[in-house]
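Protocol step 4 of 6: structure prediction from sequence.
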Amino acid sequence: MLSTPNIQPLEIHNDPSTLGKRWRKWINRFEIFIIAANITEEERKRAMLLHLIGEDAFDLYQSLPDPTPQTPPSISSDMS
């Protein structure tokens, strides 16, 4: 059974000028965990990332629009 690693949530509300540095450090630790835990499936990687990243970052993720393009409604060629 996989145990949850001791990765602290990503602090997104601290000093914005250091967010990039904090993100790189956080994602590096996450990638090390993924390798050590032998997680290879993309769906499981994404699930672990969203689980471990923390509530604030998860809320931000949830607020983003769905990247899946919506199919526009078809327009009938018979406009009469």
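Step 5 (inspection) to follow. Helices lie at 19-36, 42-52, 55-63.
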